[in-house]
């Protein structure tokens, strides 16, 4: 059932890379709605993170949605591996290749929710033909590759445009990059419902001392929800 309430999706890019299982359990215990998994190939973005094997290893430690963000190119060749690894949502970049429509068909063909991501330089119109092919549109509010970057405020009107393009379709708008309790209200007001946050969630805590995760998640969620009243 589609639901547009605010969801917080911590990105494990900001987690302890030596402790992913415990970190996933900790953020879910502290209120995370989704777990955002940033896959980077060192080609589409200037950083390298983890592959299908890591996703498969953390899957048993995630009760909720495993939201896999593929910052890779080519992307089609890896879709089946991430689907088998247990991804619930698989998001590909519109910039990753010439056949995004086919990529989204393939993701849905694997029985997964399909997402399309847009880099800051890509206009909303780039996904105008995909509105019936996606379950999620991810708006990058940083240039992809790293956590801890500053929010690119010029992307806020793009969120409004996308919400208009989506209309009453059951499609999430996910915001990815630089989300804090300060920036969350801007994008919630513009029509976003899934907020990815790495550094703003993981700061000050650890899997052993996870209370700060809960405080950070609550701060982002309440700031976003306050903007909707
Ligand atoms: C960047 C990733 C983001 C990033 C978010 O390429 O897609 O998910 O990890 O990290 P913060 O919230 O620290 O900007
Ligand atoms: Zn991401």
Q: Topology of this protein?
A:
Elements: E1 7-10, H1 20-29, E2 34-40, H2 52-58, E3 65-71, H3 79-85, E4 89-93, H4 100-109, E5 113-118, E6 136-140, H5 156-166, E7 172-176, H6 184-190, E8 194-197, H7 199-202, H8 211-226
Parallel strand pairs: 1-8, 2-3, 3-4, 4-5, 5-6, 6-7, 7-8
Helix pairs in contact: 2-3, 6-8
Bound molecules: D-xylitol-5-phosphate and zinc ion.
Please, could you describe this protein's structure?
The chain is of the alpha/beta class and 229 residues long. The chain has a single domain (7-226), classed as Aldolase class I (TIM Barrel). It is 31% helix and 19% strand. The protein contains eight helices and eight strands, in the order βαβαβαβαββαβαβαα. It has helices at residues 20-29, 52-58, 79-85, 100-109, 156-166, 184-190, 199-202, 211-226, and strands at residues 7-10, 34-40, 65-71, 89-93, 113-118, 136-140, 172-176, 194-197. An eight-stranded parallel beta sheet has the order 1-8-7-6-5-4-3-2. Helix 2 (52-58) runs parallel beside helix 3. The site of zinc ion has 6 residues, from strand 2.
In one word, what is the shape?
globular
Total tally of structural domains: 1
Structural class call reads alpha/beta
- Report how far the terminal alpha carbons are from each other: 23 Å
Number of helices: 8
The beta-strand count equals 8
For this structure, the CATH topology is TIM Barrel
Largest sheet: 8 strands, parallel
SS strand fraction: 15-25%
The low-pLDDT segments are none
Arrangement of strands in the largest sheet:
1-8-7-6-5-4-3-2
The radius of gyration is: 16 Å
CATH class: Alpha Beta
CATH architecture: Alpha-Beta Barrel
Q: Could you name the CATH homologous superfamily?
A: Aldolase class I
Oligomer: single chain
Helicity range of the residues? 25-40%
Provide mean pLDDT, rounded: 98
Enumerate the distinct ligands.
D-xylitol-5-phosphate, zinc ion
Elements, N to C (H/E): EHEHEHEHEEHEHEHH
